[in-house]
Sequence to fold (484 residues):
Amino acid sequence: MNFVFNERDGCGKCPIRHRAVCARCDEDELSVLEGMKSYKTIEQGEPIIWRGDDLHHISSVVSGIASLSRTLEDGRTQVVGLLLPSDFIGSPGRQTVDFDVTAVTDVTLCRFERRSFEKLVQDVPHISQRVMEMALDELSAAREWMVLLGRKTAREKIATFIEMVVRRDTVPIHAGQPHTLPLTREEIANFLGLTLETVSRQLSSMKKDGVLTFEDRRRFTVLDLAALQDATGDDADGGIIV
Amino acid sequence: MNFVFNERDGCGKCPIRHRAVCARCDEDELSVLEGMKSYKTIEQGEPIIWRGDDLHHISSVVSGIASLSRTLEDGRTQVVGLLLPSDFIGSPGRQTVDFDVTAVTDVTLCRFERRSFEKLVQDVPHISQRVMEMALDELSAAREWMVLLGRKTAREKIATFIEMVVRRDTVPIHAGQPHTLPLTREEIANFLGLTLETVSRQLSSMKKDGVLTFEDRRRFTVLDLAALQDATGDDADGGIIV
DNA sequence: CGCTATCTTGAATCCCTTCAAGTCGCGTGG
DNA sequence: CCACGCGACTTGAAGGGATTCAAGATAGCG
Fold:
């Protein structure tokens, strides 16, 4: 079930072929992209690009997870988004990025030289249409997260985060296997607008309440999904999309 | 300097002609839009569309201000964005809206039937390109606001908000005229993730510190712009875009 | 002129943070 | 093999900033 990504395979075998900026492209358009792309791998913890840096490439995450974040002068940092496979880095039409981008795990990127990509946006409607779709989806997800940051309690924030991790975990839920937190306590805290101590306390509290169990510090199983969803503070139907 | 918007004028005289979804359109494309548009006015305080409602139109704000917000079951409300002239409501490709949209002032919309607009997105690259641009800008602004919601103190939030109001006020600053808060204390609170009492206290505090003076509850003048900008918590260069 | 919505201000409370100490797991090297 | 060190995490206690609850002031409007 898990594709092993191989750079030598063509776009046709790319794991994000049908979700990335190229999703709407036909074979002809894809072959143009094929000639333009280059891959780059960034190791866990390494910066991908800093806020304000000149943006030479527009990239898509092929594998791994990256974070978008901003740090205030005094060190407070807020993670404003996680970039999962198929998400893109950089905006056509902008010369710099507005946030720091960091590899949370090892990350492989599929990159296009920015100027060339901007030309593609002009010439290939399927590209601008797809980037539009993706940007609108991200926008909705970002606004959803604003509700969490502005109005939810620590308990609700943690529950929402866990529920999100469970919902979009690639590992099938029915298999009964534990899920894995992709972030450290500190990274979770910076994503939720909390301190790492509060994150730790809330996770312990949910464990004590029988909502979760932990196999180790990263791996957990949900014991009571209904309780978890109740604790998010959201309506039954409306969930985070991210 | 202030255009009086007149529905009978053509798109050529529209006050948002060069900023809205039609910005990149040429005369021919514009004449197509001309035949499709309809106007609607919503009074201050009235809902424009509720979260989850079927979205029959894609609209642009021509004049006035609208808010995007979400309310949790227990009444906590978070404003996730303000819609100013040229901003659009609704996403091509989505059948519903994810947030409540409310007229903060009297609002005039320029509307397109959603299905027709989606067809335009397919057929007219200038439209999808422009919507893409706008969505990417909104996305960046939303993430910027996430930093505020997640990490800034009440004082910093208020300073950032005031600074934003001042920066994009249509009334020229050099005229020395007072600026006007477009929102009530409660609306400001819901935008900043605070309570209305805290907003009031912080405004009083900034008044006491000689940063601002108030002519009345809505109209104010900045006395010390440097102090205001210092208080935002942002770097000197990096500002909110919204 | 008084009604009402909006806003201000005060006092008490609370949730989260801050500061601090200690635990756990793991790789490294003696 | 185990001591050691280190990063990640947990837990406790104290403190503080924002909220909550409450009372009163102000301004707009019929």
User: Anything to note?
Assistant: Residues 51 and 98 of chain B are 5 Å apart (CA to CA). Helices of chain B lie at 27-36, 114-123, 125-151, 154-167, 185-192, 196-208, 225-230.
